[in-house]
Design goal:
- 36% of the residues lie in helices and 14% in strands.
- The protein has a single domain, classed as TIM Barrel (Alpha-Beta Barrel), CATH 3.20.20.140.
- The chain has a six-stranded parallel beta sheet with strand order 3-5-6-7-8-9, sandwiched between helices.
- It is globular.
Length: 246
Amino acid sequence: MSNAFAADLHCHILPGLDDGAGDRDDAIAMARQAQDDGIGAICATPHIRSDHDVAIAELPSRRAQLAKAIADAGVRTQILPGGEVSVNVLAQLSDNELTAVTLGGSGRWILLEPASGPLDDRLDAAVGDLRARGFRSLIAHPERHPAPDLVPRLRRLIAQGALVQCTAAYLTDTAAAPAMMALARAGVLHLLGSDSHSSRAGRPVSLSGALEALTTIETVSAHLDWIARTGPAAIIRGEELTPPFW
């Protein structure tokens, strides 16, 4: 299997917008981390929620400025559109605004952040609402929502056409890995994202360690190329996507 990744679908690399990269140098270093890990492109996914004043209309120019700075620094990593949309603000966003923050800018897939606490019917309603408006949901952060009914809830959302993206570091973190491996074994983790916020602290822009960890899980071990490349590339292109396992 190739060590090249189509994209990191979840990364707070745009500087000075939310709680992500603090400045341009930090963002360039994040892009370099990605390149060193074999990641060819990053979907820049700033928080779209009430506690972060992110102006969606400004995102194209912000991405263009960062892309130029990254290229000028000799880093080949591409910066693609995206956003991490909270279910709590979904009803306030127009279809045009949602299209502007779709992963890859293709107009189809939304990285959806559930409300805090155990998953509940708000997430089901959000996935259904997005689908009715012509979008598909990539659900972020299953690691934040432990509950006895987590697997059946995720399966119900997957049956509605949603996919689930795990934060890569939680598959290699000693404390969190067993729970994430259990979700992978159950077939309800489909894609990886770094959810990196800085090169200076916290999670790096890296997916390779998590992918290596998944080689031990029979449910997904035969589909690592799909997880690493085929699935992300299809999302960026805005294609319909059915996972080969769940």
